[in-house]
Structures are given as C-alpha cells and as structure tokens.
Amino acid sequence: MSKRKLGDGTLRLRKDGRWEGRIVIDYDKDGLPITKNVTSKSKAICLEKLDKLKDELGINRKENTITFGEWLDFWYQNYCKLRIKPKTQEDYENRIYLHIIPNLGNIPLKKLTQTDLQKFYNKLKTSGRLQHTDIFGKGLSARVIRGCHSTCRTALQTAVEQGIIRKNPAIGCKLPPKKSREIQVLTRDEIQRFLIQAKYDGYFEILLVVLTTGLRRGEETGLMWSDLNTKTGELKICRQVQRINGKLVVTELKTDESERSVILPKSVVKALVKYKETVDSEWIFPSPKNKDMPRDPSAVYKMMQKILKRSGCKTVSFHALRHTFATNAVANGMDIKTLSAIIGHVSSKTTMDIYLHTTEEMKQQAAAKINARFSKNVDTTKEVTPTGQEKPAQAKFEPTKGKYRKPGTGCITKINDHLYEGRYSPKGADGKRILKNVYAKTETECEEKLAELIKEMKAEIAAEKAKAKPQNNA
C-alpha cells in the first residue's frame, strides 16, 4: 500500500500488476462508503487520473469547505442514527442541533481546534441551559457536557478515519469530573408510610411492584396481563413505555439483558389478582383516560412525588425505589449475580459497582431474602419484617387526604357540623350521567353509605348494559 496524504484517497498495486486509485464519493443509507476508482499500468498516470477524478467530482473543494456542522449532521444521519434506539436518538439530536451546531457549526471542519471545543464546553458549564434557568441555573450539568464532548469526539474520529482531517481536536479537552450520585433509598419506616399513603391514593399496586422487583419506570408501565403467570408468580419484562418527542410510545427494552423475568412474592401476586378485578384493560397499569393505552411514566413519577410528600418521606427519584429494592435485596443475603439478573443490568460488575459497598454492613442486619421483607407488607396494617427477626413496631401513620379523591369513589361534602353529603354520578348504560346522594351525621358513616351506594349503582348499570346487548345485536 502506497502512503498518501490524508484525504487524498488510496493508491495500491493490484495483483494483476496494475495500479488502482480509489476515492470515497458518498455513503449509502446504511452508512457504507460509495467509491469510484481509476486504474493504470503506471503509478504516475494512476495518480494523475485520481486527481482528475477528484476535480471532476468536486471532492477537493468539498473537503476544504465542509463545516463542522455539515459534517456532524452527515455523521449522525449516516453513521449513528440507524444504530441507536429512538429515545437515544432524541438525546443525540438535542445535543447536536440545540447545542453543538448552533455554537460550532459554522467553523470549517479542517480549522476546528481544541481551543474551540474547550471554549464551547466552558460556555455550556456557565450559560448553556436553554430553558428552566430559574429552577436549575444557567449552566448545564457535567453529564450533558460530557455527552456533548463524546458526540464531538466520535464524529471527529470518523473524519480522521475517512482522511478528511489529520487528527482529532477533541482529544485532550478538559471536562468536568464525573460525579457519582449518592444512592438514596427509603427506610423501613418510610416504606410503610409510603405504601399506606399509596393505598389511599390508588397507587398501591404499581408502587408495590417496583419495590419488590426493582423495575424501571418505563418497564413497569409497559407490563401487560399476558406477562403475568398468576400460578407461578412469573412476571416477564419484554417492553417499555417512553415519551419520545412529546409522544407516548411502546418500545424495545434498554438492552438485551433488560428482557428478563422475575418471580413475584405470593402476597404481591395475590394483590395483583384482586386488583385485576377493577381493571378492564390488557395493560396491568392502563391510562386512566384510555384503557387501551399504558399509563404515562411521567404521570406515575408526578403522583409518586405527591405520595412521598403526603407520607412525610424524603424527596427521592423514581429510580430510588429501584435502589431501595436492590439495597434491601443485598442486605437480606441475595447474591450479586441473582440481583443483576433481576434488575436487568448488563453485567454483574455494574451491580457490584453500585451496591457492593453496602453489602458487608447490611448483611449483619438480616439474612432473609427480599421476598420475606415484603411478604407481609401487602396488608399495610401488618409489620414489614424479615423472617426470623424481632418484629419492629408498626409505623403509626394516617394517610393524608389529597385535594382530589380517587376516580370512581364519588365525593363527600361537609354541609355543617352535624351533616355530610356523599355524591356519586357515573354514566349510565345510555351514556348519560346519573346523580345520587346519601347523607350521614359523620364523615365515616357517610363514607360507608357512599361505598354501598356506589356498589349498588355499578350493579344496576352493569345489569342495564347486559340487558341492552341482545337488543343491539338484533
């Protein structure tokens, strides 16, 4: 192989004795190079032919005038986009089209320097945020800055490999250090209060499942009843729900290892079976507005934050519930390999890096498996206690009443100090609203009367619908 300057194409002596010059002119939809070549018995003539071909195609002009923004867009569309998942595409596009190209896009690719990139990263740190600056400040996080650098470096390295530039200017840039986030988990007392409040607010089952399986938010909202074997307790995780470009979509899981199955505790299965009687959908956790759609992960997160606040727990992310499960699993003797398989990590090393530092300290506290910790927690009037340990005192907690009642439970109004009114107004079989009231001297008595009224009205409506079906079929 004859040595050539970067960007000049390739020149080689073929087995048949002829010289061949080859140049990349474009890339196909899969990102593979499209080339043209010339041949000659003489090396010098082959060089002349190759230069003439480049002039005819405008290759020399293109390489000298292409901007970093043009190259970055070309690299993303042809080398990157087809190999990553939709949610990751959204992240890349935000970095490329909202941050990198607006700041560096006009600089010629061959003139881009390490100084240009370093100034850009510094700007992101001090004033790179485009929205919510009143809440989060003007600067972007170290994670976003490092993501922008990774994108620039990879795109520029491809330009090096294609012979467009001599070296990668992104190599050697100074970046903000990685900050390991402190793992936050709920305590035993917080778990009890959290689940008691969740039961009152109608979110008990969805939060119980994540606390006993460690599922990711999108994985849990993507569960369907066909994924659950109520006899064996096996729950298959094979899809996730994400919001991409403002739309709720059902997608593949994060990694191949994320597609897995877990065994639910019998008490959790029992709770889900009972809960299923109230759900008319193929989704385990359907949208309250549309039973044919899964619940929005963002809505689950927002409700979880309300429940944390109402139950007096510290403010944590949804991922902290996953950490709570994993930490309790390690504390109760579950081995790292099993835990890694349950929570869907790519490797056991990832699990060890996150949780191993807590293992020795927490193993002294218990030896039971995580299922034992939660097996008695479905009934929130009982203690949450690992097998074989002295039972701790039950958390004394009354759920905080929110501004709005759960859908389908009617409403109660205090008329005066000695009179409460309960109202329920469902849609009848004909689609029209039916309003009925009950009255009682105390709120507790009114709740009981209202619950009985709701039960009776539901039975009446169901009977009317059943009676109307034969007429509709006729």
Topology summary:
Blueprint: E1 10-13, E2 19-27, E3 33-40, H1 43-57, H2 59-65, H3 68-80, H4 86-104, H5 114-127, H6 133-136, H7 142-161, H8 188-201, H9 204-213, H10 217-221, E4 234-237, E5 240-244, E6 247-251, E7 260-263, H11 266-276, H12 297-310, H13 319-331, H14 336-343, H15 348-355, H16 359-363, H17 370-374, E8 411-416, E9 419-424, E10 436-440, H18 443-473
Give a structural overview.
- Helices cover 46% and strands 12% of the residues.
- It has 18 helices and ten strands.
- By secondary structure, it is of the alpha+beta class.
- The protein starts with 9 loop residues before the first strand and ends with a helix.
- The radius of gyration is 31 Å and the shape is elongated.
- The longest helix is centred in the last third of the chain and has 31 residues.
List keywords for this structure.
18 helices; alpha+beta; 3-stranded antiparallel beta sheet; disordered N terminus; 474 residues; single chain
The number of distinct β-strands equals 10
Shape: elongated
Number of helices: 18
* Class from secondary-structure proportions: alpha+beta
Order of strands in the sheet with most strands? 1-2-3
Strand content: 5-15%
**Into which percent range does the helicity of residues fall?**
40-55%
Mean pLDDT: 82
User: Which stretches of 5+ consecutive residues score pLDDT under 50?
Assistant: 1-6, 359-368, 380-390
> Distance between termini?
83 Å
Q: For the report, how would you describe the main beta sheet?
A: 3 strands, antiparallel
Radius of gyration: 31 Å
Q: What series of H and E elements makes up the topology? A: EEEHHHHHHHHHHEEEEHHHHHHHEEEH
